[in-house]
Amino acid sequence: MNFMDYIQYVIIAVVLIIILLAILKATKKDAGLDFNKLVELLGGKDNIISTETNMSRFKVTLKDISKANKEGIQKLGAKGIVEIDNQLKIILGAESKQLKKYIDEIK
Question: Is 2 helix (H, G, I), strand (E, B) or coil?
Answer without folding.
Answer: coil
